[in-house]
Amino acid sequence: MESSAEDSDRSRPKGYTSVGATRAKEVDFLASVGWHLKSDPDSLGLNGDIVVTDDFVVARYSHGPAVFEYSALEGPLNDDGVMLHACLRGELTLHSRTGVAHLKPFDVGVVQAGDFTGAECESSVTCMIVSFRGAEAHEHYQLLAGHSSEAHLRILNAATSSLFQGSADDLEPGFVQVQRGLEELAKATAIGSRLYPESREASLRTVYVRAVALIGTVASDADTTVESIAQDLQVSRSYLFKAFKDQGSTPSYELRRARMDMAKCQLEDGSSLAEAAASSGFGSVRKLRRALDVRAVS
């Protein structure tokens, strides 16, 4: 079935949808969210659940042998979205403009949503997808994949399963908080996994990408340092600095900038200096004042 992105966007489902009807409806639904089936629909047998908002998608699904082409729909997720694919059962091959990744059970793949082009499997699979907007999306210049931190993945899977069991047709206004929680779980799963390009070479660019993502998650912890970031990424401090130097920056600067952005948001929301310092990772008003003075001068 052929369907343009424009046509799909007009009929794109919003809210919670449980999938598992006739073959024709399965194919139509998949096309409405950008997935175009290129193999025999008789072998698809799609079953799953999905929640879609303007800037977030979470889905858990099972199907038989299939080949899909993916056309990113117009919108925020296409512009600055990250897709996390997790294989729970079977084997799955992901395709993007920057590479190919073969996932086995408890493997995950992370790619910029606009670069993802499709997936295929030769036998039945069960998978999960979380798509979300993120400032780090442009850093995912290539498809990264590897074995997950199983603890993180199990928590993410349990959270999505609980969401689907309690979902209604119309999402409650408070769902935005649930969405943010799932986004953080997805980021933690990616960060806690050993992700590499298909070549398995931990390039400087790969270390930089993972470090930026990690900083965005742990900057609010006052105990986070350049040394702890290097330790979490399992690289030396000098190699971490080399990875950032290659991109014209330093890990110290990125950590300080992330904390400043958080503190600024807190202050704009009416928090005191002490509250902003505590919640943004500075640890003390003195350190926050110093950072604010430096930014004012620069």
TrEMBL record:
Among InterPro entries, the record links this protein to: AraC_XylS_family_regulators (IPR050204), HTH_AraC (IPR018060)
Annotated signal sequence is none
Where in the numbering of this chain does the HTH araC/xylS-type domain appear? 209-292
Q: Which Pfam families match?
A: HTH_18
> What SMART domains does the database record attribute to this sequence?
HTH_ARAC
User: Which keywords are on file for this protein?
Assistant: DNA-binding, Transcription, Transcription regulation
Q: What is the superkingdom listed in this entry's lineage? A: Bacteria
Q: Under which name does UniProt file this protein?
A: HTH araC/xylS-type domain-containing protein
Can you name the source organism? Brevibacterium picturae
- Classification lineage: Bacteria, Bacillati, Actinomycetota, Actinomycetes, Micrococcales
